[in-house]
Design brief:
nine-stranded mixed sheet, TauD-like_sf, AtsK-like, 6 helices, taurine dioxygenase activity, Double-stranded beta-helix, metal-binding
């Protein structure tokens, strides 16, 4: 059967009629192009072994071993994103872009659902292409000259926010990089402009004070998650999302207390970001 791409409202596209263990080079190219163009590609029915998961991710790009999440048994390339039946805090529960605190941020992730709750646990994705394009010409001009500071210490460091929760194993780290990136980047795969700040890791604008930065960032944050830019994805075992950190935000919903949720995530290396 021929692969079918169905664009979704708000953000992303769903790809049907592809079995990743036997995907052709043309189908891999289609997945990569869809991710670059739509920010995230969703697939269902991909019940992969860890070896198959790794082999597929390597066709998208080089793998980066995650510095904060615990690895899956025997497979350091696969990070476990897990919330147990007794935990109340989930991972990634606020809007964010992974690895924006790195000098060369990760291109994206390949996330595979292993165990999902009977309901809830959806992930929201927001389109940063569309968010940027909907801004006024005047604000685009202002943002074009700005760079923003991104950091990880306040999340994963010795006094990081996870340390105050039942996901404390994610905090207390000493490897907590920071970086400065353009506020508006040009995506290297699509050539389109995208907004590149996020609520979790962006501290402020280079050369601006905290109050000045807070006011403009607050506007951009509420603008970027307008309903017309957002898609809510529902998982079941075997569902997969391949997303591009340079063109999307995401947020995992924490509405399944008392149930287990386990996802296997592989991070794909990126590179420097340019305006």
């Amino acid at each position: 059967m021929t692969a079918i791409v169905r664009e979704l409202e708000g953000c992303g596209a769903e790809i049907a009629n592809v079995s990743l263990p036997t995907a052709s080079a043309a189908e891999i190219d289609l997945i990569r192009e869809t991710v670059f163009r739509r920010g995230v590609a969703f697939l269902h029915g991909q019940h992969l072994t860890p070896e198959q998961h790794i082999a597929f991710a390597e066709q998208i790009g080089p793998i980066v071993v995650n510095r904060y999440f615990p690895p899956s048994e025997k497979y350091p390339q696969i990070a476990k994103v897990e919330k147990t039946e007794t935990q109340t805090t989930n991972i990634g529960g606020g809007w964010h872009t992974d690895h924006s605190y790195d000098v060369e941020p990760a291109m994206g992730s390949v996330l595979l659902a292993i165990d999902t709750p009977p309901s809830g646990g959806d992930t929201m994705f927001a389109d940063m292409y569309a968010a940027y394009e909907a801004l006024s010409d005047g604000l685009k001009t202002t943002l074009a000259g700005l760079r923003a500071v991104h950091a990880s210490e306040h999340i994963y460091g010795m006094d990081g926010v996870y340390g105050k929760t039942d996901q404390a194993h994610l905090a207390g780290k000493t490897d907590t990089p920071s970086a400065v990136h353009p506020v508006v980047i040009t995506h290297p795969g699509s050539g389109r402009k995208a907004l590149y700040v996020n609520p979790a890791f962006t501290l402020g604008f280079e050369g601006w004070n905290r109050d000045e930065s807070r006011a403009l960032l607050a506007y951009l944050y509420q603008h970027a998650v307008k309903p017309e830019f957002v898609h809510r994805f529902s998982w079941k075992p075997g569902s997969m999302a391949i997303w591009d950190n340079r063109a999307t935000w995401h947020q995992a919903m924490n509405d399944y207390q008392g149930h287990h949720r386990l996802m296997h995530r592989i991070t794909i290396a990126g590179g420097p970001l340019a305006a």
